[in-house]
Every structure is written in structure tokens, then in C-alpha cells.
Write a structure and sequence with these properties.
- By secondary structure, the chain is mainly alpha-helical.
- Helix content is 56%, strand content 5%.
- The protein has a three-stranded antiparallel beta sheet, with no helix packed on it.
- A hairpin with a 2-residue loop joins strand 2 and strand 3.
């Protein structure tokens, strides 16, 4: 029976000491001789080819037709036939361009994406139509990149898309202004604003808002919505003396909007806030705050109850936090 002697057993490795020794003794390129440089070059070439092969294998495993079908199915059934048709046609235009130019669609680079946008503009398509096409294809790549790490969104950050010169300037209250507003409005208006900025409701949803414990359901733009109700909103409703189950059922959305408008005019006139914020600006605040947590557009899309990621991308772009 073989018994290992103590001297045959390797001592435990001190990783910290090893790392420190490597850091202090690692050579520079100028320290290597020609043989060592050639060996290093072969290693780098092998690594590059290995990365390229891995990338090709990952792409080969993606069923584009299946992914496109899933993407198009993600469009809300509440969207119009015109919207659904726009999505399909937007994808067809990109497919036709990549086929004509011998480009594999899923390997589209940022430079090639810019060239595609320039081609759309040269065809004479209206600026708004080009922006819509870019939004649709960008949304597709965002969708697929969440499912496959090998794919990234080549439309993100493009400067080729025509600008929307008529876009209205969006104003969003700062964190400090939110505090100032909450400290300087009556309890009823505070409850409204807290629901808007802490959960991103549209003010039109508040008259239908129903709360059960920490859960809520409501109807917003003809769509039923539900989810978790923030505790600060529940507390503000309680402090205002409102019905804890249906706090705003006795009011119309216009009545609620008017009350917020009057308070914002008062605070703006007194110099406490920079702008006369609308009720919808508090939804903007919520969207930006949630996006900045982890820059996950898909998550924000669900929180805002948008029917598609493309809508959320355009929404956040208008708020100045996403550049697509």
C-alpha cells in the first residue's frame, strides 16, 4: 500500500502571495525575445479564433423565424391592426435590406445599422416613418438580446435617425422637488401625487383604483392593470382620511387633474419649484427613477403597462434617458 510522505504532498497555495508576485514580476512586451513574442502571437490568434467560433456557434443556435414570431406576438392584443402591421412591415424592411446587402440580420453592426437608416432616408421615407422603423427594429434587438447574449442592439445610440424637431420639451421634478411638493400641498393632493410618483399611475386610473391590502387593481386607457401598491401611497391615503379601499372613486380624473394643477401653479408662483408640473410629469418621474435602478427597459415596460418594449423605448427617449 502506497502511503504519501509529507514531502510528496504539495503545500497549500497562498493565492494572495502568488497574485502579488505575478503583479510585481509580470514582463512588458519589450522584455520578451522574438521566440516569446511569436508564441504570444500564436496564443492571441488562437484566442481570437476561439472567440469567433464561439460567437458563430451561439448565433447558429438562434432560430430567427421563431424569435421574430415571439417578438411580434409580444405586441398587445389591444393594439390596433395598423400598429401590428407597422411592426411586421418594419421587420420586413430590415430583412430586405440585409438580404440585398449580404448581411446576416443578427450580426448587424452599429455601422451597418446607421447605413440602413441612411438608406431608408434616401428612399424618401418620411422622418416620422424612419423613426418608427428604427424604434421597431431597436425593440426587436432589445427583445432578442435578453434571450441570447450573443446578440446586442446595433441601433442603440445611433445618430443616423432623423430628429423629431417638434418634440415637446419634457420637464420632470427632481427628488428634492418631490419632497418640497409633498411638504407643501394639502393631504388630499399629497395622496394623489404620492400614487402618481411612487407607482407611475396615469391620473385617469385613480377613479377606478381599488386597493386590497398591499395589492391594487385599476383600469388605465381601457386596460385592466394590477400589482403591488407602495406602502407610502397607502399611508398617504390613510393620512388624507380617504376610503382605504376605493380612495378616489367619488372623483373624476379631470377633477383630480385640476386640483394638482392649482397646487403646482401655487408652488411655482411662490418660487418653490422650477416648473408647473402636470399630473403626468409625476408618471415621468416614476419611469425615469425605475429605469435608472438597473436600466432594464423590459422591466420598466411592464411597470408602466406599455403594450410593447418599442413604446417604452420611445417613451424613455422622450424623457432623455434612453438614446435609440
Amino acid at each position: 500500500m502506497n502511503v504519501l510522505r509529507k514531502r510528496d504532498i504539495a503545500p497549500p497555495i497562498d493565492l494572495n502571495s502568488l497574485a502579488l508576485r505575478i503583479a510585481k514580476t509580470q514582463p512588458q512586451l519589450s522584455d520578451l525575445n522574438i521566440v516569446q513574442l511569436e508564441k504570444l502571437a500564436r496564443i492571441m490568434t488562437t484566442q481570437r479564433l476561439s472567440d469567433e467560433l464561439g460567437y458563430a456557434v451561439s448565433l447558429a443556435g438562434i432560430d430567427y423565424s421563431k424569435e421574430k414570431t415571439l417578438f411580434l406576438k409580444s405586441i398587445s392584443p389591444n393594439d390596433s391592426a395598423c400598429t401590428k402591421s407597422a411592426y411586421k412591415n418594419g421587420m420586413k424592411r430590415l430583412e430586405a435590406y440585409t438580404l440585398l446587402n449580404g448581411i446576416k440580420l443578427l450580426t448587424l453592426t452599429p455601422a451597418q445599422a446607421d447605413q440602413y437608416i441612411f438608406a431608408l432616408r434616401q428612399e424618401g421615407r418620411a422622418a416620422a416613418s424612419v423613426r418608427l422603423d428604427v424604434s421597431i427594429t431597436s425593440s426587436f434587438f432589445t427583445f432578442i438580446s435578453r434571450r441570447h447574449k450573443a446578440v446586442s442592439n446595433p441601433f442603440r445610440g445611433t445618430r443616423a435617425k432623423p430628429s423629431n424637431k417638434s418634440m415637446k420639451r419634457v420637464v420632470i421634478p427632481t427628488d428634492n422637488e418631490i419632497k418640497i411638493i409633498l411638504n407643501n400641498v394639502p393631504a388630499f393632493e399629497k395622496a394623489i401625487i404620492t400614487c402618481l410618483y411612487s407607482r407611475g399611475f396615469r391620473i385617469g386610473a385613480l377613479p377606478t383604483l381599488t386597493i386590497w391590502g398591499a395589492k391594487f387593481n385599476a383600469r388605465s386607457k381601457q386596460v385592466d392593470i394590477s400589482g403591488e401598491m407602495p406602502m407610502e401611497a397607502i399611508q398617504s391615503i390613510k393620512e388624507a382620511g380617504l376610503n382605504s379601499h376605493k380612495p378616489f372613486s367619488a372623483f373624476t380624473s379631470n377633477a383630480l387633474k385640476t386640483r394638482i394643477k392649482k397646487q403646482m401653479e401655487r408652488l411655482y408662483s411662490s418660487g418653490l419649484i422650477r416648473n408647473q408640473y402636470s399630473s403626468h410629469d409625476f408618471r415621468h418621474y416614476y419611469a425615469v427613477a425605475e429605469y435608472k435602478k438597473n436600466r432594464d427597459i423590459y422591466r420598466v415596460s411592464k411597470l408602466l403597462y406599455h403594450s410593447s418594449i418599442a413604446i417604452t423605448e420611445r417613451y424613455l427617449q422622450g424623457l432623455g434617458v434612453v438614446d435609440i
